[in-house]
Amino acid sequence: RRRTIEVLEVLSEISWSSVQRIVTEDLGMTRVAAKFLPRILTKWGMTTLPHAPYSPDLAPCDFFLFPRMKRDRKGHRFNDVEEVREKTRTVLAAIQKNEFERCCQQWEHM
């Protein structure tokens, strides 16, 4: 969210605080943190279901590959889709075979 406001600040050439005020007060946009979402949904009368951290409907990629991909690309802005693809290929190529094997072995023991 802060990055979005900073981008809007640069694009609009107005101060960060002005962009913040416009976004939150004038446009009525609010920030919702993931830890508060269940409380908000309960307040609205919606039922939330707990999700087991190692649920069978999640694949090993959800615990090993995707977080790794996100970590290695975090904070980087890409100019186009091809740049994203190239970085993804680089990150995948850097992962050793034994890391994949260890991930699968850990998954089997859960």
UniProtKB/TrEMBL annotation:
GO molecular function, one term: nucleic acid binding
PANTHER family noted in UniProt: MARINER MOS1 TRANSPOSASE-LIKE PROTEIN (PTHR46060)
Designated name of the protein: Mos1 transposase HTH domain-containing protein
Organism classification: Eukaryota, Metazoa, Ecdysozoa, Arthropoda, Hexapoda
